[in-house]
Amino acid sequence: MSDSKLLRGTFVLTLGTYASRILGMIYLFPFYALVGTLGGTLFGYGYAQYTIYLSLATAGVPMAVSKFVSKYNAMGDYYTSRRLFRAGIKLMLVTGFLAFAVLYMTAPSIAKATLGSEGLENSVEDVTMVIRMVSIALIIVPMMSIIRGFFQGHQSMGPTAVSQVVEQLVRIVFLLVAAYIVIKVYHGTVATAVGFATFAAFVGALGGLVVLFWYWKKRKPHLDKLLEESIEPSNITTAQMFKELFTYAGPFVFIGLAIPLFQYVDQYTFNKAMIAAGEKEKTEYMFGIIQTWVPKLVMIPLSIATAFGLTLVPTITKSFTDGDHALLKHQIDQTYQTIVFLVLPAVIGLAVLSYPIYGFLYDVKDAAVAGGAILRIYAPLALWFSFFTVNAAILQGINKQKYAVISLVLGLLVKIVFNMPFIFVFHEIGSILATALGYTVSIVYTFYMIKKHAHYDFQVLIKRSLLMTIFALLMGLAVLSVQYSLSLFMTYEDGRLASGVISMTGAIIGAGVYFYASYRSGLLEKVMGKRLENTIRRKLLRQKSV
């Protein structure tokens, strides 16, 4: 396959993945308007269970299948690739149905353990219903992961990208329409609306599956022709195929579960600890903000940053394999600096504008009560999430993925040990502090392993990060000045329109200050490259490129 086709395929897959993620964030804003904070709590109860299984089905399997298929295709053994495809479909149908059956039957027990007490806003029956509605999607989602991985193994990224976007679009449209009809047309309960919203995962998966079947029908003549040209198939049993497949998938699956697993700890401990701390009346309200509404805002800068950073990881693998340590160090430096350069100002911007942003996107009243304060404290976790994601990818690139798994286990143990004590002492903020502490342990461990095995020196990163911090703080002061100036005429408490004006004005001026300071100091060129600086000269400053 030519380099141009490979790059185009990588771009298509990256674009599809992040388009799907962005869609998965923005739908929550109209959904919040329909179901409110407590509806988000109920949605989180159900979706947290599904997310674990979804991550198991999608975080590692497509990549592992792709690696397996690519390996045997390169040998000319297309027959073994097709064998894995057929056997994998059958296996995933069985495991998907078993996962559905287990989750469906254990839903009442999970609901009781999640709520932790009687007399809360959401009942055991409501939580059980929501979990059962979302569990149906598990029947077909694992099968989709096999099909996507098979196409990727043939260097065909379009089916995965298009099916991801269609799946998300169908899910969102069904979710919002169903919730609107239940609440606004039939005046039904929020629980019923949330139940249909979680069932949308199944409807969306059907949409994605239709796209994949369409691609299969279209590509089958070509794939059959390859099968006819196959060499003598490898002497490998089905059990050996699956062993090899899951060896590839294991680390990717586990790392993909990082954020869901941390949230899973909260699902079973948050309410219990809050009730023990005497906060029974507001525990579900706070759970909805911390687990459903605020994380989606924090994921926006995280997704953009990791999209930039992780595109460099494949080159890290090659440099390590070639033994080019100087180039490897440069590439790791560039990856880290890109993350800090993009995420740090976003974190400070979210923290400074937390109240108007929450009021604009969700609700002004909730922003004043708790949403703004929680977003301000939660925002720095975007940097922690980014570093963990990139560190895990770098360790995989240098063939030390076991250390990424160990780091996640260590972080999870810290989260489990400290979560309930922290919530008991600090109430809802304790959950965020325990997550931050757990990720800190994971990140410190992975930094040490990267330093040890990639011989990486952090001096350049530290020096440039200090400069980025100074510029980000200057940006924060500029945003504070904007807020203070606008407060003479309006505050976020004046309503959603005022919140929007404050948020947009602060974001635009803050971004301008940060990027101008970075450009004038030469930091922008050092981090993002000469091509971007020349583009800014031509498009924004109307100067000739140098």
Give the overall pLDDT as a whole number.
Answer: 85
Main beta sheet: none
Order of helix and strand elements from N to C terminus: HHHHHHHHHHHHHHHHHHHHHH
- The level of helicity is over 70%
Strand content: under 5%
DSSP E strands, number: 0
Global morphology: globular
Q: What is the count of DSSP helices, taking H or I runs of 4+ residues?
A: 22
**Low-pLDDT segments, ≥5 res:** 1-7
Structural class determined from secondary elements:
mainly alpha
Rg, nearest Å: 24 Å
Amino-to-carboxy terminus distance: 35 Å
Transmembrane segments: 12-35, 47-66, 87-107, 127-147, 168-187, 193-216, 245-265, 297-317, 338-357, 377-396, 403-426, 432-450, 466-486, 498-517
Organism: Bacillus songklensis
Subcellular location: Cell membrane
Protein name: Oligosaccharide flippase family protein
Key terms:
globular; mainly alpha; disordered N terminus; 0% strand; 546 residues
How would you describe this protein?
The structure is a single chain. The chain has 546 residues and is mainly alpha-helical. 85% of the residues lie in helices and 0% in strands. α4 runs antiparallel to α6 (141-153) and α13 runs antiparallel to α16. The chain crosses the membrane at residues 12-35, 47-66, 87-107, 127-147, 168-187, 193-216, 245-265, 297-317, 338-357, 377-396, 403-426, 432-450, 466-486, 498-517. It is found in: Cell membrane. This is Oligosaccharide flippase family protein.
